[in-house]
Amino acid sequence: MNRFIPFFIISVLLISLVVANLLFGAVSLSLHDVFRGFQPGSDSYFTIHEYRLPRTLLAILVGAMLALAGALVQGVIRNPLASPDILGVSHGAGLAAVVYMIYFPHSSISWLPAVALVGGLCAALILWWLCGHRSSTIKLAITGVALATFYASTVDFLMLIKPLEINNALLWLTGSLWGRSWPQITMLLPWLVLIPCALYLAKSLNLIHLGEDTAISLGAKVNSLRLIALAIAVALTAAAVSICGPIGFLGLVAPHLARKLFGGRHQALLPATMLVGAVLLLMADLVARTIDPPIELPAGIMTAVLGAPYFLWLLIRTK
Amino acid sequence: MSLSTHNVCVGYHGKTIVNQVSLTIPEGKMIALLGPNGCGKSTLLKAMARILTPIKGEVHWCGKNLHQMPSKGLAKQLALLPQTQPIPEGIKVKDLIAYGRSPYTGFWGRLTKDDHTIIDKVMQETGVTALAEQLVSELSGGQRQRVWLAMTLAQDTPYLLLDEPTTYMDLNHQVELMHLLRQLNLSGKTIVTVLHDINQAARYCDHLIVMKQGQINTQGTPEAVLTKDMLRTVFDLNAQIHRDPIANTPMCIVEDK
Amino acid sequence: MMLSRLPFAWQCIVLGASLLIIAWISLFSWSAVQITPMDALHALFNMDNTSVPQHIVQDLRLPRTLIGILVGASLAAAGVVMQGLTQNPLAAPSVLGVNAGAALGMAAVSTIAPWFGLLGTSVAAIIGGGMTWTLVMVLGSAWKSGNDSSRLVLAGVAISALCAALTKASIIMAEDQASGVLTWLAGSLANARWNTFDHLWPISLFSLLGCMALSPTLNILQLGEENARNLGASLILTKLAGSFLVLLLVASAISSVGSIGFVGLLVPHMAKMLCGQDHRRFLPLSMLLGAMLVVLSDIISRSIIFPMETPAGAVLALIGAPFFIYLVRKRTL
To answer: Which of A171, A317, C185, C250 has CA 20 to 30 A from C209's CA?
Structure first.
């Protein structure tokens, strides 16, 4: 029974953040305006329906996906410092997408998630190749960080030598929800299939938590499970990155918070992580939009301000 | 129901540790695997628990190749307690023990009433009922070892494989554990355990298997196995064999060099 | 490599000569107005006041090259000292967050209090870099066990990410003053003028000499802290002096040309390959190599999309990041 109280609290938090995201922004609306905004023809229809509502939904989806990816990666490689962005997968996906946008500016934007997926998978394979099967927590993290630095500097370089195409890419790259609306949500929808796939792995992830030998002895197929879970994590990350750009530290922090609140059983942890991720990104985006209106900060900045200190704390704790 | 190896060679990274071992585990007995460090006793155990795949040869379960059988089905027959366990974060004792039921549960891991009954039973047997709601990461080393044993017991298998289960325990907990294993054995389980304490093995087990340099040196009852010659050839020890004054089993006393 | 077999004096001469040649090339290459190699020499020794190319060389190219040399030497020396102090081959100003901290300090001052001017931003760079450096060192000293050097790097990376996020935020929130900050962040020599050089050279020269004075102590530190103490080195004094010099070097470099990364990481390793572990030797070689590297990447940065310029910092990052990966891999962690 105890587990339902945090679930309840976090759901309430989620709902109130959704409401707050609809209410506040460059112009604050009243609750009444918000409700009327759902009906076509009203004054606030454009603000709510075309702008704040899709953005809020997107924050929930992207937050949940990134957080879930982080939980899968942490679950599979049992490494508290791991997450797709620390391991360079996000930046690999971002690099692929930037290359695509710069060199194929006329092709359809709906290919972006697939391109990002290829980039993310390549980044994961490169990391695997560099680190091998059993490397220490710290070595994996530091190699991932080094790779992420490389991808990021390649992106910077490309953007600096191709200044004409910069607008499109720059807007996309900042890890921001600005200017995203219904088309991006429809782009994201097919990828939501991955969420039930991930939940299906919950039980086996519990066993991996017990160590490889015990997991095998309890009947888990450890190697194939690893591959599937990592592939899902990469795909979730790539899809989210292809919409919002790399939003750092969310995939790292959300699973840790969820584990603190809901314990380590993946049946509870995975859904909880998604809730926490959505709450964090909604919060980050709300702060980023309202801290100094009408100027907007990218939500990725807020997650980094929150996440980097947390990463430091984890680093101190990891033995 | 039987577990046997046929000319198995096992090793890591291409280096053979266990060499051409053929062995049949006597059913219904309590068996100890003994031998000096690096003799391959843990490696052999891992091959029997399908953690390691043999380089050559086969491990058979009921006459079929163990490594080609569906893993989930085997998980209801063979349970392994590894020597070292990770310390999972945010997992309660009861949750951890419940994971032992996972070969029986559906994809979401929902527990039935029977599952709960078995979990309660093994918690009582291992004396961890009072710890049920605590986090595994907050337990002491000895408590944690018992919780892991409970998890393995919850798997409810006729065969139980243990890799040096007494290593990190105080003496009183070691004794408790060996008694518990003995009781489980009397209730019908076949138990194979790697031990490094020869006297403990002789006192509590019916069948000793002594390994040296990747091969089986000798096996049989404690009386037959525990001899001066064996101790000299396998462990390079000069020792006397006496009777344990309480259990009347053979025990060795090491002489000065 | 042939060069590594030469005696030390010859190595210095060869590298010094190459530096001069590269510097000379950078004076005339890839200019919108045609400059001949002879123009470059005339502008230095025999100025013809009516020649436009020679004026360009003297007013724009010469300060740019000189600043490139100073910045390169400074960052390389800072890298050597940081690697010596932390006994960590991955230590460098950009890796351990000093660059990002200095940039944050500058961004904060120039967006919140722009009236402080150049001096204000330099001081802010020192303070910002100093704070991150202290933080990284405090965290670093919290880990005494085997793997702590990699943790130090991860801590630096996290602090860099934090500072970068805050820097971006302050730039976006104060858009009107932001253009200046953005050039700094990119790390470009394009805006280097004589007045920047006038501010830069006294500090750089002082700190570079200071590093040379510190190099014998850094040699002793290589033996491990306890041995160093046995041999009579004052650890605290060395660490304080070294940290202070690093901050001066990095902050003066960054406030002149912006955040140029990876020089401090790459160059000390190249120098060590040439002349071994003796700081008294590889510190000066590092300075020469660092100067060459920065001037060279400045030339490359002008050539990539001529007549436009790519910031030299971006070129360096592209060379430096794979090297970082290589170093991480080479170490047995």
So the answer is: C185
Cβ atoms of A120 and A90 within 8 Å: the answer is yes
CA C114 from chain centre, in angstroms, equals 25
Asked if residue C139 lies in contact with residue C152, where contact means CB atoms within 8 angstroms, the answer is yes
Residue by residue, pLDDT tens for chain C (333 residues) are 567 778 888 888 989 999 999 998 888 888 877 888 888 888 888 777 788 888 888 888 899 999 999 999 999 999 999 988 888 888 888 888 898 998 888 888 877 777 766 677 788 888 999 999 888 877 766 545 444 667 788 888 889 889 988 888 887 777 655 455 555 667 778 777 888 888 888 989 999 999 999 988 888 887 777 777 777 777 788 888 998 999 999 988 988 888 888 899 889 988 888 888 888 888 999 999 999 999 999 999 888 877 777 788 888 888 888 888 888 777 654
CB B154 within 8 A of CB B121: no
Q: Tell me if residue C48 falls in helix, strand or coil.
A: coil
What angle in degrees, to the nearest 10, is found between the helix axes of A112-131 and A137-161? 140
- What's the rounded Cα separation, in Å, for the pair A32 and A38? 11
Contact call for A149 and C162, based on CB within 8 A: no
Contacting partners of chain C (3+ CB pairs under 8 A): A
Q: What is the DSSP string of A179-199?
A: T--HHHHHHHGGGGGHHHHHH
A80: three-class secondary structure by DSSP: coil
Give bridge partners of residue B30 from the DSSP assignment: B191
DSSP string, C244-300: HHHHHHHHHHHHHH----SHHHHHHHHHHHHHTT-HHHHHHHHHHHHHHHHHHHHHH
B189: helix, coil or strand? coil
Which of B71, B15, B75, B65 shows the shortest CA–CA distance to B40? B15
C302 to chain A, closest Cα gap in Å: 11
What is the CATH number assigned to the segment(s) A4-317?
A: 1.10.3470.10
Q: What is the largest CA-CA distance in chain B?
A: 59
Q: DSSP state, C96?
A: T
- Touch A-C: 3+ C-beta pairs under 8 A: yes
Distance from C-alpha of C164 to C-alpha of C172, rounded to nearest angstrom: 12
Q: How far apart are the first and last CA of chain B?
A: 45
Domains and CATH numbers, chain C: 27-330 (1.10.3470.10)
Domain ranges in chain B are 1-77+157-227, 89-156
Calpha distance C123→C129 (Å, rounded): 10
CB proximity list for C226: less than 8 A, separation 6 or greater = none
* Rounded-to-integer distance, Cα B89 and Cα B84, Å: 16
Of the candidates B75, B90, B95, the beta carbon closest to that of A259 is on: B90
CA atoms within 13 A on the CB side of A195: 21
Q: Provide the token pair at A279.
A: 């709450």
- B105-B109-B112 Cα angle (round to 5): 60
Question: Which amino acid is present at B50?
Answer: R
* Cα three-residue angle C290-C292-C293, rounded to 5 degrees: 65
Strands B190-194 and B30-34: parallel
Residues 6+ apart with CB under 8 A from A71: A254, A255, A258, A266, A269, A270, A273
Among B51, B67, B149, most A C-beta atoms within 10 A, so best to mutate, is B51
- The CATH H-level superfamily of B1-77+157-227 is P-loop containing nucleotide triphosphate hydrolases (3.40.50.300)
What CA–CA distance (Å, rounded) separates A35 from A45?
A: 9
Instruction: Please list every residue in chain A whose beta carbon sits closer than 8 Å to the beta carbon of residue C175.
Output: 295
CB contact under 8 A, A218 and B88: no
Q: Which of A143, A295, A308 sits opposite C328 (nearest CB)?
A: A143
